UniProtKB/TrEMBL annotation:
Keywords: Oxidoreductase
Record protein name field: Oxidoreductase
Alphabetized InterPro entries for the sequence: FAD-dep_OxRdtase, FAD/NAD-bd_sf
Residue ranges occupied by any FAD dependent oxidoreductase domain in the UniProt entry: 32-388
Stored Gene3D superfamilies: D-Amino Acid Oxidase, subunit A, domain 2, FAD/NAD(P)-binding domain
Length: 441
């Protein structure tokens, strides 16, 4: 078992195609738009703008995909995790909710087309996503998901118990929700492929170039300063998310960090792979204290969970929890499970868990608060940010611009308490239904 710190090599660093050749900014440069942060949101924004003939300069403190875009588990499911669609409509109001729902639920169309058009080598497969029903009481909510998502054009369906067993290889689920348009990929390979596409379309990316300041200049535009140079631009977009370090005062206060860990097994045997996830789907075990897993292209299971108590701090215990949960879901696994890779990522959590679009100053905006919905959400946000940059009226955008606002104080502990609440609620519902609990539940 190899344990990596938050900024060390992940499985994706070991297997992704190499990053494009980039280097630090040296001296002054001019552009129409300066984008700070080369993750999915920044890269897809730059790609849209460059295709439209706009001159774009990107500044990245480390390398393209360094943050959450290269450290997530690689799931690409175009949904809203924390809210049902009716709840989202009540929270955001119209027309904002319907616009965001349309962008998010069609996000995988955008992902798949970019991968196809730019021939991005990133292990992309679109074999669906299954959320299991861990007990009979969960079936009603899953049926509601089918109805509400299909009503907005998504391709989803309810799975009976035998169907979900055939797709997942697990008999632990009482039913399930299949989202046929979902997929999974190597997230760092995808980010690096987007970076190559951005350069191909004529934009410039400067890495190892942290944005240290952003100041209004006499000509009416903005100058973004780095250690080695500066970018003068008409407009500036900050897309640094959970990995925000400076650049604009108090931007890092708009969210709170929630850590998540991801682990990858050894390459599993052919016998195991024939019975465990035989259709190469992404699986969510349906619990609020989630266990989500899939294969990578080599045949390793890549699984993710949130830290809780000893889990995530005590590595031996964490490996045990992950192995026992996997074997409980799939008791036919006969080989010993070894977790060859283990790493942490950071989520920029908002209390609403939908992205926040901040109006920092005339011509300067920031977007934070993806709250763990990285691949599809980050990919579709580029269309919204590019529309803003191209001058689309604010009242016609799919996200409402709002003043910079610090995250509520309770977000420092709220996500952890919410996870514990969901675990207790799920455990009670499971016991009342007579279903068995997984180990360490």
């Amino acid at each position: 078992m190899t344990v990596f710190s938050r900024f060390d090599m992940t499985l994706w660093h070991a297997t992704a195609t190499p990053a494009p050749q980039t280097g630090p900014l040296e001296g002054p440069i001019k552009a129409d738009i300066c984008i700070v942060g080369a993750g999915y949101s920044g890269l897809t924004t730059a790609l849209e703008l460059a295709k439209a003939g706009v001159s774009v300069v990107m500044l990245e403190r480390e390398e393209a995909g360094f943050g959450g875009s290269g450290r997530n588990a690689g799931h690409c499911t175009p949904t809203f995790t924390h809210y049902t669609l009716p709840e989202l409509r009540r929270m955001l109001g119209e027309p904002w909710a319907e616009r965001l729902i349309e962008r998010q639920t069609r996000a995988n169309d955008r992902v798949s087309s970019m991968i196809r058009d730019y021939q991005i080598d990133c292990e992309w497969v679109q074999n669906g996503y299954v959320m299991g029903a861990p007990h009979k009481g969960a079936i009603a909510a899953i049926r509601q998901k089918v109805e509400s998502y299909n009503a907005v054009g998504a391709r989803t369906r309810f799975l009976e118990r035998d169907e979900v067993a055939a797709i997942t290889g697990s008999r632990r689920f009482h039913g399930g929700w299949l989202h046929e348009e979902a997929g999974h990929l190597n997230p760092l390979g995808y980010a690096r492929g987007l970076a190559r596409a951005v350069i191909q379309e004529g934009a410039k990316i400067f890495t190892r170039s942290a944005a240290l300041s952003c100041e209004r200049h006499a000509g009416g535009g903005w100058t973004v300063g780095t250690t080695g140079g500066s970018v003068t631009a008409d407009k500036v977009i900050f897309t640094t998310g959970a990995y925000t370090v400076g650049g604009w005062p108090k931007l890092e206060r708009t969210f709170k960090i929630q850590r998540v860990f991801v682990a990858a097994t050894q390459i599993l045997s052919d016998d195991t792979r024939r019975t465990v996830l035989p259709e190469n789907t992404t699986i969510h075990d349906g619990r609020g204290d989630i266990y989500v897993y899939k294969y990578n292209a080599e045949g390793r299971i890549v699984a993710s969970m949130f830290p809780m108590g000893r889990r995530g701090r005590d590595m031996a215990y964490t490996r045990q929890v992950m192995s026992e949960r996997l074997k409980w879901l799939h008791p036919e696994i006969r080989e010993e499970i070894r977790w060859d890779y283990f790493w942490f990522g950071e989520l920029d959590m908002q209390y609403r868990t939908v992205p926040r679009f901040y109006d920092l100053a005339p011509g300067v905006v920031a977007l934070t608060g993806l709250s763990g919905r990285g691949v599809p959400t980050g990919s579709m946000l580029g269309s919204i940010l590019s529309e803003w940059a191209l001058g689309k009226p604010q009242n016609e955008l799919a996200l409402k611009l709002e003043p910079l606002k610090a995250a509520p104080f309770y977000m420092a502990f709220g996500p952890a308490l919410t996870l514990r609440y969901h675990r207790l609620r799920d455990n009670l519902a499971t016991r009342l239904s007579g279903a068995p609990l997984p180990p360490h539940a």
